[in-house]
Amino acid sequence: MRIIMIFFAGLILWFFFISDLREPPNRDWKQTSVYKKSEPTELFFEPSGESRNRNWVSRPDCCPEKSPVMHGSSFSEKQYSYNLRPLNVLASVPENAIRQIRKPYKVHAKEIWDLMSLEVLLPHFEGKTSLTASRFASREDRDIVDIRLGFLAGENDVQHLRARIADGRMIDVTKPADRAMQLFAYRPMSRKVDDETIIDYLGDADAFVSLVGNPIVISCSSWPSLGEETQRCQTHLLFPQHLWPSQMKEKFGGTEGLQVVYSFHKSHLADWPELIRRINTYTMSLLPELSVD
Description:
This protein is an alpha+beta fold. The chain contains seven helices and 15 strands. The chain has helices at about 1-20, 55-60, 135-140, 155-165, 175-180, 245-250, 270-285, and strands at about 40-45, 70, 80-85, 90-95, 100, 105, 110, 115-120, 145-155, 170, 185-190, 195-205, 215-220, 230-240, 255-265. The strands form three sheets. It has an eleven-stranded mixed β-sheet with strand order 2-1-5-8-9-15-14-13-12-11-10, sandwiched between helices. Strands 3-4 form a two-stranded antiparallel ribbon. The radius of gyration is 22 Å and the shape is globular.
């Protein structure tokens, strides 16, 4: 009888333990990195009347478990403050520059890793307004810049590209026009399917280096059958640990810093050093805790 009572007592304790893990009580979901099932997996910023399915369909990398939560109007220039977990990095961004906030759940860590995606128009990094909404809706405007920030990472693109060049997986296809832009071009030996063409450009270190001190790698993809509007370029950079307050650095673990990803149309590649420098400056202005000289 005692054994049975001990068994049921242990079962009850286990039930409350599991419940506590699944739904921590009295937690504000914006301030904690502990996952809550009641928490929305997506936040979108779109104006009333605009189809909620446009951004939903255009995301190829995510299949959310819950419907997105619509937050405010994407035409508003009001600053929206959000703590990117698990670091609780403060981002203060105009609402009309935010495309979405994703909160992927890392099962092994039982944590939320927030990922904020922004979209702005060159040359002045303007968010969406009633006058420019159609340009953002097409997703093919050459002056749209996409900015993604939120993950921790190391800046390894240069090492990976050089390793692939060394073992023959990438071949040099640099043209005189590339050299004039202070770029070296490389193409994979095995071409992509579906007519996709990928060129990795390695920037001359004399032209520009990252905040970590590495040459820039810019990967450009295009689908010739779909026209020039599909030609987009992307680069992964870091805002390194030493730019952040000392109390945050321990949360970075063994990583070098906070990852930022920039995407822009290939037509801007000719002015890549100045473009990346300007995107860096704009993105840093959204992170008030960042210390930049």
